């Protein structure tokens, strides 16, 4: 069993901590050997700026193979390939009793800080509640298993506000979440998906995933092309996946009256806002936090049926021993493609 795990503990600090004991499996839990863990942009931002994160969030995009299960676990079984999900709602807290299961006090993304886990999946073996695992079909690869979580983040945001059949969607930020949002907007009826990112490699990727056009944020041709595509109406919906708070203002001239701006990326920088700009267009500004347990099943089905593509999303794969070096590099300059960690190597 692996004896260390890595946890972000401060600005520029990635600390090796003792890995949790996985030899004794708790009732209702499963031990999983991690195949791949993706390095999330929020992890890098936390490392760069010292933003506190619950230890369990350090390495939250992962998949692997179940090696043992505790008492009372009927599924998954040892040998099953799985991906990590969010926990089901408890059904008992005040919010669940009021029908707000996605906002469960105990098990929603908001409750991550109360997790007893001392680390995430920047390690070789993890022990997690079996109810937080989704099985992967044979035609979904281990690498795709590490992309299920960010894909579901995008799915949650697009489901909250869909472009509608024949609609036009803007996607700001073309990391993995943004590239999934491009595809999901098309699957949700958009005939025009326009992608925005300063990285030309990511813009090319977005075109490959179905965007009709891709621009740098400061490209003066962006607004004109969007107006040409929409008979001068503007976009029906914009998905902010970059974490850049400036999009709260820069997106406004690109939106139609009554359009929606969905905040999927977690912007952590202050920004000066003029709410009257939103009000003058009647914009619906909506936040999208993470995902719900049932949405992971949808994501896995879309991957299995080939409706969500992943080829070209990932780049370098590194072993666990290189993680401190890789985080230091990513903090200086983001890569165009997702970095995966293989703790087995």
From TrEMBL:
It comes from Actinocorallia herbida. Keywords: Metal-binding, Oxidoreductase, Zinc. PROSITE patterns: ADH_ZINC. Belongs to the zinc-containing alcohol dehydrogenase family. Residues 177-303 form the Alcohol dehydrogenase-like C-terminal domain. This is (R,R)-butanediol dehydrogenase/meso-butanediol dehydrogenase/diacetyl reductase. It comes from the Bacteria. Residues 27-138 form the Alcohol dehydrogenase-like N-terminal domain. InterPro entries: ADH-like_C, ADH-like_N, ADH_Zn_CS, GroES-like_sf, NAD(P)-bd_dom_sf, Zn_alcohol_dh. GO terms for molecular function: oxidoreductase activity; zinc ion binding. SUPFAM superfamilies: GroES-like, NAD(P)-binding Rossmann-fold domains.
């Amino acid at each position: 069993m692996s004896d260390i795990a890595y946890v972000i503990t401060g600005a520029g600090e990635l600390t090796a901590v003792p890995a949790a004991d996985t030899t004794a499996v708790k009732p209702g839990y499963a031990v999983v050997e991690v195949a791949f863990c993706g390095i999330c942009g929020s992890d890098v931002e936390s490392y760069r700026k010292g933003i506190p994160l619950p230890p369990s969030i350090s390495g939250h995009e992962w998949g692997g193979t179940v090696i043992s299960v505790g008492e009372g676990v009927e599924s998954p079984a040892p040998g099953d390939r799985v991906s990590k999900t969010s926990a089901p709602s408890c059904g008992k807290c005040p919010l669940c009793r009021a029908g707000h299961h996605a906002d469960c006090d105990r098990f929603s993304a908001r409750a991550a800080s109360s997790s007893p886990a001392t680390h995430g999946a920047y390690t070789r073996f993890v022990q997690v509640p079996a109810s937080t695992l989704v099985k992967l079909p044979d035609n979904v690869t281990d690498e795709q298993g590490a992309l299920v979580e960010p894909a579901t983040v995008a799915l949650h945001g697009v489901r909250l506000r869909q472009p509608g059949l024949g609609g036009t969607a803007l996607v700001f930020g073309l990391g993995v979440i943004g590239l999934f949002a491009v595809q999901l907007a098309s699957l949700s009826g958009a005939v025009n998906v326009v992608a925005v990112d300063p990285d030309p490699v990511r813009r090319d990727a977005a075109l490959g995933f179905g965007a009709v056009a891709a621009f740098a944020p400061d490209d003066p041709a962006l607004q004109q092309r969007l107006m040409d595509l929409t008979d001068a109406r503007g976009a029906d919906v914009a998905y902010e996946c970059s974490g850049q708070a400036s999009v709260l203002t820069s997106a406004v001239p690109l939106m139609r009256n009554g359009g929606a701006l969905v905040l999927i990326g977690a912007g952590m920088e202050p920004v000066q806002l003029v709410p009257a700009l939103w009000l003058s267009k009647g914009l619906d500004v909506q936040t999208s936090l993470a995902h719900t347990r049932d949405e992971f099943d949808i994501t896995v089905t879309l991957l299995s049926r080939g409706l969500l593509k992943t080829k070209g999303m990932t780049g370098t794969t590194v072993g666990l021993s290189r993680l401190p070096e890789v985080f230091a590099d990513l903090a200086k300059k983001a890569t165009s493609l997702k970095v995966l960690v293989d703790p087995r190597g």
